[in-house]
Amino acid sequence: MPPTRRTWLALAATLACTGVLAQAAWPDKPIRLVVPYAAGGATDGFARIVAEGVGKRLGQNVVVDNRPGANGGLGLTAVQRAPADGYTVLFTLTSIVQNPLLYANVGYDPFKDFAPVSEAGRLPIVFTVSTKLGVDSLAGFVEKARAAPGKLSYGSFGAGSSAHMYMELLQDAAGIQLLHVPYKGEAPAITDLLGGNVDAVFVSARGVSPHVAAGKAKSIAVVGTARAPLAAEVPTFREQGYQAMDLVGWFGMFAPAGTPAPVVQRISEAVAEVVRDPALKPRIEALGVIPVGSTPAQLAQTMRADQAVWGKVIRDKNIRLE
Predict the structure, then answer these.
(1) What is the C-alpha radius of gyration for the chain, rounded to an integer number of angstroms?
(2) ∠48-54-59 over CA atoms, to 5°?
(3) Distance from chain centroid for Cα 290
(4) Pairwise CA distance, residues 309 & 132, whole Å
């Protein structure tokens, strides 16, 4: 005898109930937090603080899985292909939005392949000059650069990096021309700044602050609308008349697309509790990070805004990477 309509309705109700119960029981095993960068950096350090705190709040271990390589692509692909069950989550940077604009084929769509969970924090970077340059303010740097177009140089932590694009914005806003020297990471850029091989760099406050304290370099501006925790004495670009420099790089948490909304919401709420915990504030700010803890919708909005700004810079300056 074929199943009756009542039988089908009963079966559908049973399956729906099973799904609800499965979500209610989540998490019942450890969660993997994929970090697409090597251990030891600011991203990894912040991810581990978040992982520890979220694990305590959800009652399960959150295990950090470092997957460096392909400019973050290996880690993103691992999460993209993972089951959408809340047991694999991504902790990454603004580059999740920038890379598809820079590369012909990154293999993922940041808006279709991932579910935004939370913007955990922001990492403002500072514009720092060599003491050998003889300037101690942004106005002084701009004046010197205008007097010698294309003569002053700046180092970034890679072609197509946020540091590179910030300087493109600044050159347009200030009417200056500089020579770009890309490095493979911020450490070698800082080394060459201290050696006088480049005149300025865009780097993290955490990376350069010991050298600033020792009088070997001087930070003269910071991106964003708020000063950096590790460089509170350094005014923002906005304070000095450059509103184009307001966008700040962020740390975002994502789940595979299709992850149940209640699960995404629980993780998001846990992240917000962790990064806003007063007891953790010193550890987070020691990394140079400004805690945020946004909702999924707010992170999605930030991604769209960043895509619009960085997309225009990349198109206008014809920045393409292989």
Answers:
(1) 22
(2) 125
(3) 11
(4) 34
Cβ neighbour number for residue 14 with a 10 Å cutoff: 10
Identify which of 164, 93, 102 has the alpha carbon closest to the alpha carbon of residue 127. 164
What is the rounded CA–CA span in Å between residue 204 and residue 189? 11
Pair 123, 251: CB distance under 8 Å: yes
CB 176 within 8 A of CB 235: no
Residue 5 structure tokens: 């309509």
307 touches 101 (CB < 8 A): yes
Please state, in angstroms and rounded to a whole number, the distance separating the CA atoms of residues 75 and 29: 21
In 3-state terms, what secondary structure has residue 247?
coil
CA 203, 322, 41, 61 torsion: positive or negative? positive
> Alpha-carbon distance 273 to 264, whole Å?
14
The set of residues, in sequence order, having a beta carbon less than 8 Å from that of 224 and lying 6+ positions away, is: 122, 124, 236, 238, 245, 246, 247, 248
Distance CA 46, CA 39 (A): 11
Q: Are 236 and 87 in contact (CB under 8 A)?
A: no
Token pair recorded at residue 156: 């970034």
- Phi/psi of residue 180, each to 5°? -90, 130
pLDDT per residue, tens digit, the chain (322 aa), is: 455 555 444 444 444 444 444 456 899 999 999 999 888 888 999 999 999 999 999 999 999 999 998 878 899 999 999 999 999 999 999 999 999 999 988 999 999 999 999 999 999 899 999 999 999 999 999 999 999 999 999 999 888 888 899 999 999 999 999 999 998 888 899 999 999 999 999 998 988 999 999 999 999 999 998 899 899 999 999 999 998 898 899 999 999 999 999 999 999 999 999 999 999 999 999 999 999 999 999 999 999 999 999 999 999 999 988 7
